[in-house]
């Protein structure tokens, strides 16, 4: 137990640079009271077996129970690359084995970051801990599990990617990580995401959310449902639709007047339209000659 004693001997005022690992279970709130203990047993079995398989002494790792997950810190004497590489491989394999007999597979979101950590009798704290937990709880991590139908997603901080992942190594392939811009409560950060056993995920297709909600802006900042590179997205009929516009057919604008109209700065009624089909809006126009408004379809004669 000498490694465990070393952790307990830390002065709460001392900050030690350690690898922080946050592990969260997918949709843990959907487990009932009878299922949750079994879910927790599976999480610990997956993680602790992977530590042994990766040659990491269990007593060297600080582990805190989080109900639906685990918070870990690993001292600097253990190579970060071992946790990023071999340990993640073993976690993935163990999770696949656990899920082989489950109708509803267990899904895990894992996040890693290296930074100053303070230990006390109740656990660990510090901004490094906060950031790691935010990454594991981010919408990108959640959406990737669902969209890719994966059981495991890994998120690493930008600094950890630059310092360790980018150089590569055994079981670490930087080409299989993809960046995403996250709008966290503490500010915007970049994180890198990896689905073990798969190519780099398409994080650019994930939509932006408001800061403070674990929100995210994908690498291109493109809203969900709008293809990347569209510039100003166009509806099916070619009508431009701003990402901020309401759904097709909806009307939005300023404060309504007594007749239910929305007034612009000149006092005239004005509305905003968002459409996927054909739409023409004509205001304050004077036509000197007969005109046709709209599209003529079919082979019939055109009517002006």
Mind explaining what this structure looks like?
The chain has helices at residues 2-8, 36-53, 80-99, 127-136, 139-147, 158-163, and strands at residues 16-25, 62-65, 69-74, 108-120, 123-125, 152-157, 178-184, 187-194, 215-217, 251-252, 272-273. The strands form two sheets. Strands 1, 2, 3, 4, 5, 6, 7, 8 and 9 form a nine-stranded mixed β-sheet that branches. With 304 residues, it is α+β, with helices and mostly antiparallel strands. The protein is globular, with a radius of gyration of 26 Å. The protein has six helices and eleven strands. Strand 2 (62-65) and strand 3 (69-74) form a beta hairpin. Residues 1-5, 212-281 and 300-304 have low confidence and may be disordered.
What's the mean pLDDT score?
Answer: 75
What structural class should be given to the helix and strand makeup?
alpha+beta
Distance between the termini: 91 Å
Query: Helix count, per DSSP?
Result: 6
Instruction: Give, in order, the helices and strands.
Output: HEHEEHEEHHEHEEEEE
Q: How helix-rich are the residues, as a percent range?
A: 10-25%
Strand elements, count: 11
| Shape, principal axes of CA atoms | globular
Radius of gyration: 26 Å
How much strand? 15-25%
Low-confidence stretches: 1-5, 212-281, 300-304
Largest sheet: 9 strands, mixed
Give the helices and strands, then pairings.
Layout (H helix, E strand, L loop, with lengths): L1 H7 L7 E10 L10 H18 L8 E4 L3 E6 L5 H20 L8 E13 L2 E3 L1 H10 L2 H9 L4 E6 H6 L14 E7 L2 E8 L20 E3 L33 E2 L19 E2 L31
Parallel strand pairs: 4-6
Antiparallel strand pairs: 1-3, 1-4, 2-3, 4-5, 6-8, 7-8, 7-9, 10-11
Helix pairs in contact: 2-3
